[in-house]
């Protein structure tokens, strides 16, 4: 197992390199980089959002926009060539493509993502501030999905083919078919002051006066803010785990040891929760990291944007809109790294839950 774990960890390196490299060169052919935006802002008299000249050295470390010529830049029309050259140098695009690429790789190996182009802070600090929000949303969603899906799946297995099994399956399939962002819009319209009720806040994870609240008030305020985003995130997450639990229990119930236990006169609940539960839940418990990955990655971006939660998804979205390449690639790097490590953890969990599983032997 140690050799298998080592191989998986070593595979993280080329995977990260491939993802960052592919996105780096895609950016080279994408129009509208940060220099283009800066020149356009100057031409139209909008100086807000431009970084100060004192940060030019740190900006030059991981800028990934195309290396533009003056004649190719929309924002360069009517501007002094010296101004264009100064801004291009400030953002680090006066350097050759290969030099910027290898500088970026070296900095990323050291987790040095540079500074944001349009925010007065380092990329790493912005990620540190945003990551807890995304993790919180993912953990709450995963916890609720497990608390609902496991009992529901067990009951569906016990009452397989009944009316309860049929209509509950219909409900979770409908929930699975509804996109989380569409359900989020419905929640906003109904409960967040959209057109009907104004029961829940629409922005942020806590209120502005959060620090002044007592400890119980902080808990209530936090739960008040997180309710709608979590509900919107989990709406489509019940189907997979519920059906997995149901099928696992049905498979175990048909096995010979259950028939033997019933023949001995054991109580049905003891058979179900003392024997069947332990064996049927191996796959469900081992799948926890994978479920968290899906909640963390799939639902975070749109939900964070809709509910103005300052998480990693919203941070990456804003960076993409602003062409803030150091911040955009920093969030991509962290997202990818977390996903790869959690996938490894998922495999390790299978082995811990069921020692008969041997990935190294495979």
Automatic annotation (TrEMBL):
Segments traversing the membrane: 9-30, 131-154, 166-192, 222-245, 280-307, 327-346
InterPro entries to which the protein is assigned, alphabetical: MetI-like, MetI-like_sf
Keyword flag Translocase: no
GO CC annotation: plasma membrane
Location in the cell: Cell inner membrane; Cell membrane
Topology term for the membrane: Multi-pass membrane protein
A Pfam family that the UniProt record links to this protein: BPD_transp_1
NCBIfam families the UniProt entry points to: PRK15133.1
Family affiliation: Belongs to the binding-protein-dependent transport system permease family. OppBC subfamily.
Protein known as: Inner membrane ABC transporter permease protein YejB
């Amino acid at each position: 197992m140690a050799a298998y774990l080592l191989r998986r960890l070593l595979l993280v390196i080329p995977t990260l390199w491939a993802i960052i490299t592919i996105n780096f060169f895609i950016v080279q052919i994408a129009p509208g980089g940060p220099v283009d935006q800066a020149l356009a802002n100057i031409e139209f008299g909008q100086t807000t959002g431009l970084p100060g000249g004192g940060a030019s050295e740190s900006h030059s470390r991981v800028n990934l926009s195309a290396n533009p010529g003056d004649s190719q830049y929309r924002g360069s029309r009517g501007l002094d060539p010296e101004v264009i050259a100064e801004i291009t140098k400030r953002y680090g695009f006066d350097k050759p493509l290969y030099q910027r690429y290898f500088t970026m790789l070296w900095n990323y190996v050291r987790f040095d993502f540079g500074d944001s182009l349009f925010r007065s802070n380092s990329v790493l600090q912005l990620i540190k501030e945003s990551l807890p929000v995304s993790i919180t949303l993912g953990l709450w969603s995963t916890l609720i999905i497990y608390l609902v899906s496991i009992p529901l799946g067990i009951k569906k297995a016990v009452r397989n083919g009944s009316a309860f099994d049929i209509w509950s399956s219909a409900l979770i399939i409908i929930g699975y078919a509804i996109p989380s962002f569409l359900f989020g819009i419905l929640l906003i319209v109904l409960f967040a002051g959209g057109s009907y009720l104004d029961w829940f806040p629409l922005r942020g994870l806590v209120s502005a006066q959060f620090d002044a609240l007592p400890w119980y008030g902080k808990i209530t305020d936090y739960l008040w803010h997180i309710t709608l985003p979590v509900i919107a995130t989990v709406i489509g997450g019940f189907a997979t785990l519920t059906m997995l639990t149901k099928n696992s229990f049905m498979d175990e119930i048909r096995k010979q040891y259950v028939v033997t236990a019933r023949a001995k006169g054991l109580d049905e609940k003891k058979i179900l929760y003392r024997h069947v539960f332990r064996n049927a839940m191996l796959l469900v418990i081992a799948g926890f990291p994978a479920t968290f990955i899906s909640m963390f990655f799939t639902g975070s971006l749109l939900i964070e944007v809709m509910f103005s939660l300052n998480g990693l998804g919203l941070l990456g979205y804003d960076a993409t809109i602003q062409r803030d390449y150091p911040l955009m690639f920093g969030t991509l790097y962290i997202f990818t790294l977390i996903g790869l490590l959690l996938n490894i953890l998922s495999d390790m969990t299978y082995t811990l839950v069921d020692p008969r599983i041997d990935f190294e032997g495979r």
